[in-house]
Amino acid sequence: MGAQGMVFGILGFLLFATLANCNTEGDILYAQKQAWVDPNNVLDSWNQSLSTPCTWLHVTCNNDNSVIRIDLGNAGLSGSLISQLGELTNLQYLELPMNNISGGIPTSFGNLTNIISLDLQWNALSGPIPSSLDNLYYLKYLYLNGNNLTGSLPVEILSLVTSGSLITLNVANNSLSNTTQPPQIKVTTIIQDLNIISV
Amino acid sequence: MPNFRSPLLFLILISFFCTQLSCTETEVEALLSWRSSLKDPGCLTQIWSFNTSSDSCQWHGIKCNEGGSITNLSISANCSIDGTLNKFNFSSFSNLTRLEVEYKQNLHGEIPKEIGTLRNLQVLYLYGNLTGEIPATISNLSKLTNLDLSGNQLTGSIPSTILSMPKLHFLALSGNNLTGEIPTTIENPSNLKILDLSYNHLTGAIPRAIGHLTELTIFYLDNNELNGRIPLEIGNMTALRDADFSYNNLQWEVPTTITQLPNLSILYLNNNQLNGSITPDLGNSSYLKAIDLSDNKLIGMVPSSLCSGGALRYLRASNNSFNGLLPITLKNCTTLIELKLETNNIRADISLTFGVHPNLEDVDLSQNHFYGRLPSNWAKQIFLLSLGENEIYGKIPSGFLNMTQLQLLNLADNNLTGDIPEELTNSTSLMNLILSNNNFSSLRYIQAPSLESLHLSNNRLVGRFPLLQINWARLMTIDLGENNFSGEIPSWIGSSFPVLRILRLRSNKFMGNIPLQLSMLKNLQLLDLSNNNLTGPIPNTLSSMHTMTVKTAPNQSYFALHYVHEKNIDLIWKGKEATYQENIALLTGIDLSCNYISGKIPDDLMKLQGLIFLNLSRNQLSGMIPQNTGNMTSLEVLDLSMNHLSGTIPLSISHLTYLNMLNLSHNKLTGQIPPGSQIQTFIPSAFSDNDGLCGFPLPNNCSTQNNSVVPVTNEAEDHKFEVIWLICSVILGFVTGFWVYFGALFWKNSLRFAVFHFTDKVQEKIMKWFV
């Protein structure tokens, strides 16, 4: 009897949790808008009262009204990236090059399991390159060049070359320290199969 | 002459003077010392001053009793004092009955506890920027009748004894930052006539003790965070006239006891979480004037007795789940001015819903399941009429149209048929005519001069462009899409629509050229001419459409405001159809797809730096993509697919950092696809069916392919070359055939005989058959 009650209780809680729908994708993007400084008003259309962000400019959704692209290159944005961006699980293209975005790359980006292109080049990002990015099996293009990133390039990310989809990795023009060469990946393999610009 | 050196005599003299001058020294001293404590005494410097004939009791804002003691102290609004009450010596003013500091001056700091010593105080009004908590000592003011501390920044809870003060009949604490719960101990019976606790952060439930408020006429609790039930005891508040509980988190049902209230006039319960259904008797025993139940979770029938008192003017119940509306509810409701029931599930016959309503001005029944035919002659004064998204059928009856004040008419998304009557299309008052998504089949020319928006899309309308060449000074939106309009787009369009923002003619049978004069539409934001039979070139003057040349300006609010009455614009971009509402104000785009447009893409088009989407697909465009396409820096969508475009893709396309949709497929493009991190994000199908394209993301490399070396030939030259070949081969064939035949006959006798013999035979046979 008690066990049954507990099962129902848990199920009820789970049902409630899924229905609660706390942070919709629109809420996440709106929170990011507030964390950014937008002198050119490019985010004017990011109106939180709309039911989905799919009619917002610079946002593209799939047929299920889930965000798949964010294109804001050269938009004059500053401020930092919020970690909730990692909850946009259907995001495939995050294109934010040539802004003045500062702060660190959120480790939650390791949760963007569908990401294909992550373009953060030419910003003012600092801190380390999170090793959680090694989770991104479908990642093809990773542009982190032209920032103030420190630490070393996590070796796990290089594994995305052999066991993931990575074909372009650019970490040039940062403040990275010497990267340790993983013993099992030959240097020649990298040059042939990977457009590694420079480290 | 008195001897002043005698102190006793001096004292007697002074007290004699004091009595004659009607002042109490301690009180005057207290006033003056408080004034000197103020950072800025404002007008008090002049008002509280002694000149030869004035004493303190004659100062402006001061009143004394017969004994010269101050009873009234008021400081008016334009006095502009700046200071606190900290140095106000309350205990000096034992006879003070009224203390009023009016609004809009900087009285700040906390309310001192000592205020409780004003034992004769009856009226206390303090406005300003007072902070801190309401001192509990206020409850010691046993003679207090009026307490108004509205519009300050007071925090903390309402003192628990405040609703037990026996003589209090006016209590207003509105517009502060008060938290905590409403005190549950209320004097029984209470003398309170007006209680206003609105615009605070009060939590908890409305106490059941409100049943003791039997004298209360005005009860405002709106704009707080109250939850729980509305107590049944509300039925005991027999004097209640105006009740506003809106904008809280009140839950559960509306108590049936509310129907007992004989004097209930205004009831605002909107913007809560109320559920369940409302008893039909609501309004039966009172003279209800205004009721607002909107934005809750109410179900069942709209209460049918709301108008039985014969006084109902405002009925709002939108955004609920009401499912029925009995005819009796509104049939005889002649006092009705506003009726808002939109966004419910109401299933009712609209032809039975109304009687005659001479005062009705604003009706919104949209987004329900109203069916039946439109009634006629029911509301001559109506301004705003929205019946969209229902199941109304039949024609617009002629009696419907005596509405000479009509400004907004929204009948979209119904099953209406027949004519769009001339009375509507010629109405001088009409500003918004929204009839999309019906089956209307005909209309006369539209010449409603006040028109701001015209939505006729998705009907069966035929004929030529239906607007007359008048000065459409206000028209901002024209949506005629998805009909059977034909003929040319008139050239006077450019000069007749000075403020036009949206021109949507998609999916009709318009033909001829796109008029050059379109470029005169300086304010045009959306131009959608897709899916017609248009021919000829793209005008090369479109860069004059000024709004498309500037990046979105921060102040779009003017345009956005006009969309208060607009519902939807359907656009197809980013590959799928989307319905735009408020965001439409920030969108700019040109869609000329699915026509027979030819010629080159004009370089001029690239000056449209504000353009967000450009769709020229499925036409017969030729020539190269302009080199400076990269100048359209706002571009998010670029679709040039299914044309005859040739040449290379301009390198400048890689500058378009906002581009999220690119389609150049099915053309004759050649050369390397421009490199760049933005272009990399597009899949190969964006470039497919272009024989000459190479490079990433296509699988074929440029350096190892013949493709990349194919000379760039002009499409027109290719065509000419083909024609010449055709003519040559025909001539050659003819010459060869002639000489073979003639030569054979000339040289071979037997062949000649055989041929002529055969010819004779055939001729005989044919002649036999005729004769």
TrEMBL record, chain A:
<keyword id="KW-0732">Signal</keyword>
<feature type="domain" description="Leucine-rich repeat-containing N-terminal plant-type">
    <location>
        <begin position="23"/>
        <end position="62"/>
    </location>
</feature>
<dbReference type="Pfam" id="PF08263">
    <property type="entry name" value="LRRNT_2"/>
</dbReference>
<dbReference type="InterPro" id="IPR032675">
    <property type="entry name" value="LRR_dom_sf"/>
</dbReference>
<dbReference type="InterPro" id="IPR013210">
    <property type="entry name" value="LRR_N_plant-typ"/>
</dbReference>
<protein>
    <recommendedName>
        <fullName>Leucine-rich repeat-containing N-terminal plant-type domain-containing protein</fullName>
    </recommendedName>
</protein>
<feature type="signal peptide">
    <location>
        <begin position="1"/>
        <end position="22"/>
    </location>
</feature>
<keyword id="KW-0677">Repeat</keyword>
<keyword id="KW-0433">Leucine-rich repeat</keyword>
<dbReference type="InterPro" id="IPR001611">
    <property type="entry name" value="Leu-rich_rpt"/>
</dbReference>
<dbReference type="Pfam" id="PF13855">
    <property type="entry name" value="LRR_8"/>
</dbReference>
UniProtKB/TrEMBL annotation, chain B:
<dbReference type="GO" id="GO:0016020">
    <property type="term" value="C:membrane"/>
</dbReference>
<dbReference type="Pfam" id="PF13855">
    <property type="entry name" value="LRR_8"/>
</dbReference>
<protein>
    <recommendedName>
        <fullName>Leucine-rich repeat-containing N-terminal plant-type domain-containing protein</fullName>
    </recommendedName>
</protein>
<feature type="domain" description="Leucine-rich repeat-containing N-terminal plant-type">
    <location>
        <begin position="26"/>
        <end position="65"/>
    </location>
</feature>
<keyword id="KW-0677">Repeat</keyword>
<dbReference type="Pfam" id="PF00560">
    <property type="entry name" value="LRR_1"/>
</dbReference>
<keyword id="KW-1070">Brassinosteroid signaling pathway</keyword>
<dbReference type="InterPro" id="IPR001611">
    <property type="entry name" value="Leu-rich_rpt"/>
</dbReference>
<dbReference type="GO" id="GO:0009791">
    <property type="term" value="P:post-embryonic development"/>
</dbReference>
<keyword id="KW-0472">Membrane</keyword>
<dbReference type="InterPro" id="IPR032675">
    <property type="entry name" value="LRR_dom_sf"/>
</dbReference>
<keyword id="KW-0325">Glycoprotein</keyword>
<dbReference type="InterPro" id="IPR013210">
    <property type="entry name" value="LRR_N_plant-typ"/>
</dbReference>
<feature type="transmembrane region" description="Helical">
    <location>
        <begin position="723"/>
        <end position="747"/>
    </location>
</feature>
<dbReference type="Pfam" id="PF08263">
    <property type="entry name" value="LRRNT_2"/>
</dbReference>
<keyword id="KW-1133">Transmembrane helix</keyword>
<dbReference type="InterPro" id="IPR003591">
    <property type="entry name" value="Leu-rich_rpt_typical-subtyp"/>
</dbReference>
<dbReference type="InterPro" id="IPR052595">
    <property type="entry name" value="LRRC69/RLP"/>
</dbReference>
<keyword id="KW-0732">Signal</keyword>
<keyword id="KW-0433">Leucine-rich repeat</keyword>
<dbReference type="GO" id="GO:0009742">
    <property type="term" value="P:brassinosteroid mediated signaling pathway"/>
</dbReference>
<comment type="similarity">
    <text>Belongs to the RLP family.</text>
</comment>
